[in-house]
Amino acid sequence: MRYTEISPVPALQDFIHNYWCFEVSGNEPVSFPVQHRTLPECQRSVVLISHPYYRGIRIAGPRTEAFQLPVFPPAVFIGIRFQPWVIWPFEALSGLSLLNDTADAPTEIASVWDADWIGQIKPGFDDWARLQEQTEALLSAFPLQSHALVRYICHSLTQKRLIKEIVADIPASTRVIQRTFKQTTGLTMKQYASNLRQRKLWEDMVQSSSGSMLETILDHGYFDQSHFIHEFQRRMQVSHQDFRKYLNSIQVSLDLSEDLVHS
User: Fold this and answer.
1) Structural domains of the chain, count
2) Which domain holds residue 126?
3) In 7-105, which ranges are E strands?
4) Is the per-residue pLDDT at 65 higher than 90?
5) What's the rounded Cα separation, in Å, for the pair 170 and 194?
6) For residue 154, what are the CA distances in angstroms to 107, 198, 201?
């Protein structure tokens, strides 16, 4: 199994967070089907799906809990993860509408994509340049808006600023700020910050070959290991040991350069 993330070219980074691909080749010693599970998610993704029982496009929303899916190999899931402050011209694709859910892509979006190309997608995917071409076609067909206030808050949360400090900087009532953020992203600021912390913690554990798990947990602001274990179990419905074992079965490549889309 393989999971890869690619950064978009700078010109698209205000709208695209990254591109990603998860695939199961079918030639691996894994149980059938694979019980795939992901962390809570801050963004929405347009997902191209190719496996024996389905080929098509779906929209995956932000999540406050784990996403679980039985995967029948050979399977490939390719995603365009949009920035959380992006405003789509379709109400059905709003963060609130898609919270903890997925939906078929609207016909207007599906028609932009090259159906023949999607039908040819197989494990071993590396056609990032074509994926970017298709993404640019989508952005040309549906010019998206960027919510400046929500973008400011998201960047501030990424920098681990306290919510009360961020709100104090903004000349608006706390209630208006909270409502605007949730209507745009689908998440409260607290949920968004919690998702960021969980994701960054696991990124560090996947990418680091040294240092203890307890050290990583404390570095990300948990009081102790019990605090982390309780929160993780509550949101993921699986132990952190089992999730780590699953991650160890996947070849993970994160934060790869946007240069790959030109290769």
Assistant:
1) 1
2) 1-263
3) 16-24, 34-38, 45-51, 54-60, 67-71, 75-82, 86-87, 102-104
4) yes
5) 21
6) 30, 15, 18
- Residue 262, pLDDT > 70, answer no
- CA separation for the pair 132, 262 (Å, rounded): 9
In the chain, pLDDT over 90 holds for what percent of residues? 62
- CATH number for the domain that contains residue 35: 1.10.10.60
d(CA 57, CA 100): 17
- Cβ neighbours around 213 below 10 Å, total: 15
Helix (H, G, I), strand (E, B) or coil at 60: strand
What is the average per-residue pLDDT within 153-158? 96
Nearest CA among 158, 178, 192 for reference residue 62 = 192
Q: What number is the average pLDDT over the span 55-75? A: 93
DSSP per residue, 153-183: HHHHHHTT--HHHHHHHSSS-HHHHHHHHHH
The residues near 184 (Cβ < 8 Å, ≥ 6 apart) are 84, 85, 87, 95, 147, 150
Higher pLDDT among residues 41 and 26, named by residue: 41
Q: Answer whether residue 31 shows pLDDT above 80.
A: no
Residue pair 88/94 in contact (Cβ under 8 Å)? The answer is yes
DSSP secondary structure of 203-225: HHHHH-SSS-HHHHHHHTT-SSH
- Whether pLDDT at 134 is above 70: yes
Distance CA 258, CA 256 (A): 7
Mean pLDDT (the chain, rounded): 90
